[in-house]
Amino acid sequence: MIGWLTAQEWGIVLLSLRVSFWATLLSLPVGIAVALLLARGRFPGHGLLNALVHLPLVLPPVVTGYILLVVFGRRGPVGGWLEAQFDIVLAFRWTGAVLAAAIMAFPLMVRAIRLAVEAVDAGLEEAAATLGAGPVLRFFTVTLPLILPGILAGSVLAFAKAMGEFGATITFVSAIPGQTQTVPSAIYAALQVPGGEAGALRLVLVSVLVALGAVGVSEWLSRRTRKRVAGR
Amino acid sequence: MSLSVDIRHRLGGFTLDARFEAPPGITALFGRSGAGKTSVIRAVAGLLHPDGGRIAVDGEVLTDTETSVHVAVHRRRIGYVFQDARLFPHLSVGQNLAFGRLFGGRIARDEVERLVHLLDLRPLLGRGTADLSGGERSRVALARALMTRPRLLLLDEPLAALDAPRKAEILRYLFRLAEETSVPMLYVTHSVAEVAQIARTLVVLKEGAVQRSGPTAEVLADPAAVPALGVREAGAVLQATLHAHHPADGLSAITVGDVPLLMPEVEEPPGTLVRLRINAADVTLARERPATLSALNVVPVTVLSIRPGEGPGAAVALSLGPERILARVPRRALVALDLAPGLECFAVINATAISRADVSVGALA
Lengths: 232, 365
Prior knowledge:
The complex is a heterodimer.
Chain A: H1 7-40, H2 46-58, H3 61-72, H4 77-86, H5 94-119, H6 122-130, H7 135-164, H8 167-173, H9 183-192, H10 197-229
Chain B: E1 3-11, E2 14-22, E3 26-30, H1 37-45, E4 52-57, E5 60-64, E6 69-70, E7 78-81, H2 93-103, H3 109-118, H4 134-146, E8 152-156, H5 164-181, E9 185-189, H6 192-198, E10 201-206, E11 209-215, H7 216-220, H8 226-229, E12 235-246, E13 251-256, E14 259-264, E15 273-279, E16 283-286, E17 296-308, E18 313-320, E19 323-330, H9 331-336, E20 344-350, E21 359-361
Parallel strand pairs in B: 3-9, 3-10, 7-8, 8-9
Antiparallel strand pairs in B: 1-2, 1-4, 4-5, 5-6, 10-11, 12-13, 12-15, 13-14, 15-21, 16-20, 17-18, 17-20, 18-19
């Protein structure tokens, strides 16, 4: 495959994979926490949090990207603070692409995990408590293993969504070749120049392969864990 | 070890207002479904916060709404065998047991072996929980709860899914465990037969309130408790000594005090103490001693008290030797036989009516 793609295209694919990997990994703990909060929590502002989580799903991606630019840009309230305090710059960097992809994929991840949490029989957690397990132990020995299929499904969905994210990413971090140009923006760019179809086609093929691989891996993982969780 | 419960709780239209003491040994919480049995034991486990009241084990307060004490469930060291077993589906049977052992009271290794052997769990240890039978699930759940070395064991109809022989075996085991270890047990059931076999104390719940409570033999022999227990199920439990076997016709001779009785054969050596339940409907009364009777058992009794029921029946409490039994007779017979407290008459008990399921080995409390 290395010989089949040009060095530049290979770089684009690797960048996309790297962005999606980090976007999925970093949003996972937050996603689990928010899913638990939405599934189990009873607090004022429950509805607001739910709406906020789902916002990227319904907003035009360009709008989400613009909001990110305003908030996390170098002059934005959060972006400026991050740069001053930790020397972290997100706008027009690949790290910014991670943030954009994570936020766009977040609703899908939370949804999948939340469904899994809601399917857990609370009676099992009660049983664990009567057996002497405190809240933290209960979470790690009972709840977490039981929602693992949902976590895996959510992660695969989020990864796929991150691989395909275009609008928010291009608005927030642009598509700087070698820095922030991901597979979708590279395909778009290739189609804008005469004779770019061949390059676009190769990237399209890569996208299809990655998507098929992700679906296959997730099927295999979820079948395995579902069997385990069902007690077989 | 003893448990004292005094709680009030509202749940929708249902009001629970229960107060009772559970001394060492097995205390049966008896009542129809919806009587509040499960709510009571959930409160004892700490899974339900009652609106008001106090729960203490051996003087240690677990719940006290007045002083806002509510010890967390996992710190109570109270074993709970749920009606639906609640085995962890992602763990094997062995891992389920290890869970109790790990987080609970660290039971000794030979004790684990004994439990595994006694509940016949060895062949199940490596298996998943999905295709266990109902009985297997109950046994695993019971073992898992015992692995925590609880100071009190709550059992919510744990034997409902078991077949009769296995049920009898586990009842015997629970009985012995309660006697040997002084772990008090709160045993939820709606079977009078189970109550009679193992419970030292009986608490009868009806519509959220304790209707009767006290030593099992006393409550079961009380005609006033008959409506709460159900007229078909009512019957006293009494203490007898195995006297001799008559293998030729499958009967055993027992004595209640010095009154001899015949019953279906019990496979225990003569001299063994047994407790047996005699269903009130199986006792017939006669003014004169009937001469020849297929029932075989005709014993002199004295009428203690009479309680006419709502329907055609009446419950009559009788003294039989040192024990008390109950008879359920038609109300019309009260008049026909001119039954009144203090009257000496004869009770006719069919020897084959004493069911094997109603017999258990051991002394009454």
